Amino acid sequence: MLFHLAALAAGSTFICTPAQVWDGDTFTCADGKKIRVSGIAAREVRWNGERMLDAGCGKNHPCPTATGVAAREYLARLFGGAHGVGPHGHLLVKGPLLQCRPDGPTHGRIAAWCSSGATGDISCRMVQKGYALKWQRYWKRHVCR
């Protein structure tokens, strides 16, 4: 993962095929890059060994009303829907191909603005549908088109 973080220069872009959805603002690409969807806050989730549970919001984070489980499922639907569940409760997905622009590393992940012709802008879609809120501190001047 450190190679991926160091290799992404400011202003560059990369291609990602989503493979796993962890929660409403985190997914993993098929090549192993773990992406934190830029500019948004979704509720957290917690795997209890059998199923995923809503875990509320982090301290001082914007807190949407949609549950963390609902946000995770919606993000998976943007990627064509889940086709299975991984051993830690993450949803398995396949695509679509995303164009992503990194916004910097964050807690072992790459914060990135990602979109495709099929999904549009992921950050904007999550906010527009009510599964996440803009986190103005990180949203900055991003514009939904």
Secondary structure elements and their pairing?
Layout: H1 2-7, E1 14-16, E2 18-23, E3 26-29, E4 34-37, E5 40-41, E6 45-47, E7 52-54, H2 68-78, E8 84-85, E9 91-92, E10 98-106, E11 109-116, E12 120-121, H3 122-128, E13 133-134, H4 136-139
Parallel strand pairs: 4-11
Antiparallel strand pairs: 1-10, 2-3, 2-9, 3-4, 5-13, 6-7, 8-9, 10-11, 11-12
In short:
19% of the residues lie in helices and 34% in strands. It has 145 residues and is α+β, with helices and mostly antiparallel strands.
CATH class: Mainly Beta
- What are the low-pLDDT stretches, counting only 5+ consecutive residues below 50? none
Summarize the biggest pleated sheet: 9 strands, mixed
Tell me the β content. Answer: 25-35%
Query: What is the count of β-strands?
Result: 13
- Tell me the Rg in angstroms: 14 Å
The number of domains = 1
| SSE string | HEEEEEEEHEEEEEHEH
The CATH architecture classification is: Beta Barrel
The helicity comes to 10-25%
Class from secondary-structure proportions: alpha+beta
What integer is the average pLDDT?
92
Number of helices, where a helix is a run of at least 4 consecutive DSSP H or I residues: 4
The first-to-last residue Cα distance is 31 Å
What overall geometry do the principal axes of the alpha carbons give?
globular
Q: Could you say what the CATH topology is called?
A: OB fold (Dihydrolipoamide Acetyltransferase, E2P)
